[in-house]
């Protein structure tokens, strides 16, 4: 019984940051129709910047709770500075090209960012565990869990509901939905596509960097974190259906629980569990859980 | 006489739209049947169901007595049913000749890993068929550069490559200018020539229908309104009111 | 003579003879570089074969590593040492590895195909890293093979492996060319452009795609076999996605119009790699990334399109 609770808590908290990251990936795909391989790199940059900010804030003798503000500032800084640079300076040149070619463009971006982060932060790992203990411990039954994990779940729910609300209940959200549906039609209705693209990309990167910043206290930030993250996020969006918000949520839960189940029952299967879950879903729903297949007009 | 193609009680809905409502037709070999009806009446849905692109919600389709309802486009094509499309389905970056060679290669059963696609024999056959359609002057041109009418003809020529028993033409003259419609249909009928092909064609132009059809089936909101010889169907009051719009 | 060389088979044979003769004059480092270009080029040729059908595998590391590990194990555990036999075995094992996935992957196109192949290769990577009996993340060494029953002397090992790589890649290049010109090769191109039409002409697109996937896997395995014999060492990195990414890079640089271009592109990559590791050892990935962006921006159809274009224009004039 207690193992079951542990699996649930672990699975759901893993699913939360994964959902935040995958939501960004799926949003960028929905609007720009680009499957961004470098998404994991933005996650990594978010984690690195967070590590730097937390240490920086600590140098000013600020109260400990400010470290959480440092994490949020890190994510915002990446989204506000790096994202527009990449979208305006690089992606823009390639819009309208074949989707596989666009994947390769982002792959090139991944390679470049990988070396850039190494040049800036070096190859040694960073540890920023300070924020991890901010939320104390929570007892569930006989077990105690770290409060930070529950905070993560809260942030994920907030992000999911916030994005859903923003898309469906605000004017700008409706504009974005129109672009997702058809950029051409939206453009002919007077929507400034270029601005929507920049905005959507910045927002997607904000989520990636936020995922990175929030997990920084739980991991050692070092070269190579980007790869693992982007591969797992792909699994999530492929399970859920590319471009779908509910899909990202359900996909993240499936992946998180599958992984937690493996970790607590048979650890060697940790990596496999994710792909087994993905394979099972794809056998029954080749397009992912929340993707509508539309017959082409002939 | 047993029908070559027989549809029994086909039903198909897309959400609230009824695209086929108990559609039953028997087609006898050698007939030239025109399917008429306004847009959304269910003609293309019918063609798509016959050729396996869409599965009917209910009903069966028989080809020479064999139930083919569950088969996909490929199996139905292999049984001798070929079709052309409202929007011609071609390989736009290839030449006209290469498109014909693709058609030739696809119908040869097992695709060879080593026998060249461009053998003398295949080139000659493709060239001959292109000539029957008056397309031989374009054979080296890239399809993407061709005008719409030429593409329509190529689409039909590809469908005819393997001497189908039944040929379905989905709006062969749509997008073709008024004074080219008759020459185009003449080309198609001439190309069919002496071949014993049963033809079903979706058509909006009643002059084309009267001239080329031996039988007319009129659709209205997924149902068959009338079915018979052109001179009977086209004077039917309901057909005039709902389909041809010639009622006064 | 000129007409004879226009035939792909004879052009290929002549090219192989020329390279074998040239090899005798090359310094050792360049021989090794050419051997690796040929080995990696074969893997990329497999991707080009898939690209002609409209899909790009982002996970050829799977079959590259599969073939490589199979060959290394056969040599170390089973005592199979003949280089030709090992090369062929590497291809066969890789094709067998791909077989169970072929039917599933044949249903996918575009980014889905790329991502699923990527996932497969990363699963193998994960397994290899965790398998201690295969040396974990360090991998293990393989002893030098023999050829046609003869031991290879130290002084000759570079040339013999070079010659093997040239002959094997030459033969596969000729076979690939024949395949591209075949009925099935043409239908592959048609699938890339209009899959629906191909089904409506009575051919099975998924069967063509599945066969292409297995052929590409065979090539990947052969490339892996040649690479491990030249390197003498294998590690999970063979299946890592950046390895797969380099194969894709070569196919994009080559384009799908010319078989020869694939090997030229592979050689260019090896050159850039060795110069970068000498002059920018810490930013090799960045160099590769920038190079890739330049190719996609300015040569989206690859270098092969350049000389195929020349040829077409020349024929057009004469």
Structure description:
- The complex is a heterotrimer of chains A (298), B (248) and C (318).
- Helix content of chain A is 73%, strand content 3%.
- By secondary structure, chain A is mainly alpha-helical.
- Chain A has a single domain, classed as ABC transporter involved in vitamin B12 uptake, BtuC (Orthogonal Bundle), CATH 1.10.3470.
- Chain B is an alpha/beta fold and 248 residues long.
- The mean pLDDT of chain B is 91.
- Chain B is built from nine helices and ten strands.
- Chain C has 318 residues and is an all-alpha fold.
- Chain C has one domain.
- Chain C is 77% helix and 1% strand.
- Chain C has a two-stranded antiparallel ribbon.
- Chain C is globular and about 55 Å long.
- Classes of the chains: A mainly alpha (298), B alpha/beta (248), C mainly alpha (318).
- Chains in contact: A-B, A-C, B-C.
- Chains A and C meet through helix 3, helix 4, helix 9 and helix 11 of A and helix 6, helix 11 and helix 13 of C.
Question: What features would you highlight for this structure?
Answer:
heterotrimer; A: 298 residues; mainly alpha; ABC transporter involved in vitamin B12 uptake, BtuC; two-stranded antiparallel ribbon; 11 helices; 2 strands; globular; B: 248 residues; alpha/beta; Rossmann fold; six-stranded mixed sheet; four-stranded antiparallel sheet; 9 helices; 24% strand
| Overall spatial form of chain C | globular
* Contiguous helical run count of chain A: 11
- The number of domains of chain C is 1
Largest sheet of chain C: 2 strands, antiparallel
Strand order of the largest sheet of chain A: 1-2
The second-level CATH architecture of chain A is Orthogonal Bundle
Could you state the order of secondary-structure elements of chain C as H and E? HHHHHHEHHHHEHHHH
- What's the rounded overall pLDDT mean of chain A? 90
N- to C-terminal distance of chain A: 56 Å
Fraction of residues of chain C in helices? over 70%
Question: Taking strands numbered 1, 2, ... along the chain, how are they ordered across the largest sheet of chain C?
Answer: 1-2
Q: Give the N-to-C terminal Cα separation of chain C.
A: 18 Å
Task: Write a concise synopsis of the structure shown.
The complex is a heterotrimer of chains A (298), B (248) and C (318). Chain B is an alpha/beta fold and 248 residues long. Chain B is built from nine helices and ten strands.
């Amino acid at each position: 019984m207690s193992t079951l609770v542990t699996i649930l808590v672990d699975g759901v908290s893993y699913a939360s940051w994964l959902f935040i990251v995958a939501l960004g990936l799926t949003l960028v795909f929905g609007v720009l129709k680009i499957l961004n391989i470098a998404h994991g790199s933005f996650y990594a940059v978010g984690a690195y910047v967070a590590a730097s900010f937390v240490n920086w804030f600590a140098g000013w003798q600020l109260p400990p709770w400010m470290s959480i503000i440092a994490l949020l500032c890190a994510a915002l800084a990446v989204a506000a500075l790096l994202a527009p640079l990449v979208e305006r300076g690089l992606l823009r040149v390639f819009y309208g090209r074949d989707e596989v070619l666009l994947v390769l463009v982002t792959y090139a971006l991944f390679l470049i960012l990988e070396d850039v982060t190494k040049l800036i932060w070096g190859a040694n790992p960073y540890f920023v565990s300070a924020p991890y203990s901010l939320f104390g411990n929570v007892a569930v039954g006989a077990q105690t869990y770290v409060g930070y994990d529950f905070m993560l779940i809260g942030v994920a729910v907030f992000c999911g509901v916030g994005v859903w609300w923003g898309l469906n209940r605000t004017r700008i959200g409706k504009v974005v939905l129109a672009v997702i549906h058809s950029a051409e039609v939206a453009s002919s209705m007077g929507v400034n596509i270029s601005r929507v693209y920049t905005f959507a990309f910045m927002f997607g990167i904000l989520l990636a960097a936020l995922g990175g910043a929030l997990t920084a206290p739980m991991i050692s930030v070092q070269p190579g974190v980007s790869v693992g993250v982007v591969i797992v996020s792909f699994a999530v969006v492929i399970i859920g259906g590319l471009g779908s918000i509910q899909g990202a949520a359900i996909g993240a839960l499936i992946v998180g629980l599958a992984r937690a189940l493996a970790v607590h029952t048979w650890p060697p299967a940790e990596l496999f569990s994710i792909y087994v879950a993905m394979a099972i879903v794809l056998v029954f729903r080749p397009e992912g859980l929340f993707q509508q297949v539309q017959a082409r007009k002939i | 006489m047993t029908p070559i193609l027989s549809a029994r009680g086909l039903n198909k809905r897309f959400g609230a739209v009824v695209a086929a409502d108990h559609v039953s037709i028997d087609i006898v070999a050698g007939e030239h049947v025109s399917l008429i009806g306004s847009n959304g009446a269910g003609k293309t849905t019918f063609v798509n169901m016959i050729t396996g692109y869409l599965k009917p919600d209910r009903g069966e389709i028989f080809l020479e007595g064999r139930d083919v309802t569950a088969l996909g486009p490929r199996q139905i094509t292999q049984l001798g049913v070929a079709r052309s499309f409202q929007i011609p389905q071609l390989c736009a970056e290839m030449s006209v000749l290469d498109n014909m060679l693709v058609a030739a290669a696809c119908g040869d059963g097992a695709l060879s890993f080593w026998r060249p696609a461009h053998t003398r024999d295949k080139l000659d056959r493709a060239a001959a068929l292109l000539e029957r359609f008056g397309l031989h002057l374009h054979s080296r041109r890239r399809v993407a550069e061709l005008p719409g009418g030429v593409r329509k003809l190529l689409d039909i020529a590809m469908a005819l490559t393997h001497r189908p028993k039944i040929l379905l033409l989905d709006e062969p003259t749509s997008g073709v200018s008024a004074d080219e419609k008759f020459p185009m249909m003449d080309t198609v009928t001439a190309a069919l020539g002496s071949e014993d092909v049963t033809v079903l064609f979706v058509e909006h132009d009643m002059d084309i229908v009267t001239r080329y059809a031996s039988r007319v089936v009129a659709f209205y909101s997924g149902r068959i309104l009338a079915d018979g010889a052109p001179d009977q169907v086209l004077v039917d009051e309901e057909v005039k009111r709902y389909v041809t719009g010639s009622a006064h | 003579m000129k007409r004879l060389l226009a035939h792909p088979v004879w052009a290929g044979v002549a090219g192989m003879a020329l390279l074998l003769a040239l090899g005798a004059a090359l310094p050792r480092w360049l021989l090794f570089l050419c051997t690796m270009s040929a080995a990696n080029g074969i893997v990329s040729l497999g991707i080009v074969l898939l690209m002609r059908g409209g899909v790009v595998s982002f996970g050829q590391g799977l079959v590259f590593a599969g073939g490589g590990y199979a060959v290394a194990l056969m040599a170390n555990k089973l005592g199979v040492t003949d280089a030709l036999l090992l090369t062929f075995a590497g291809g066969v094992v890789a094709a067998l590895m791909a077989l169970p996935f072929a039917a599933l992957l044949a249903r996918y196109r575009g980014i889905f195909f790329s991502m699923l192949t990527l996932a497969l290769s990363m699963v193998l990577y994960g397994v290899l890293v965790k398998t201690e009996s295969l040396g974990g993340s360090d991998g293990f060494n393989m002893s030098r093979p023999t050829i046609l029953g003869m031991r290879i002397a130290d002084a000759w090992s570079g040339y013999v492996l070079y010659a093997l790589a040239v002959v094997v890649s030459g033969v596969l290049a000729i076979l690939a060319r024949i395949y591209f010109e075949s009925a099935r090769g043409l239908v592959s191109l048609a699938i890339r452009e209009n899959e629906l039409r191909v089904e409506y002409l009575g051919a099975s697109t998924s069967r063509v795609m599945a066969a292409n996937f297995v052929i590409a896997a065979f090539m990947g395995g052969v490339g892996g076999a040649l690479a491990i014999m030249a390197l003498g060492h294998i590690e999970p990195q063979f299946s890592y996605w950046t390895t797969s990414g380099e194969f894709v890079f070569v196919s994009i640089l080559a384009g799908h119009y010319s078989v020869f271009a694939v090997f030229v592109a592979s050689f260019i990559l090896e050159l850039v790699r060795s110069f970068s590791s000498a002059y920018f050892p810490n930013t090799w990935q960045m160099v590769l990334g920038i190079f890739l962006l330049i190719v996609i921006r300015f040569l989206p159809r690859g270098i092969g399109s350049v000389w195929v274009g020349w040829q077409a224009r020349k024929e057009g004039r004469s």
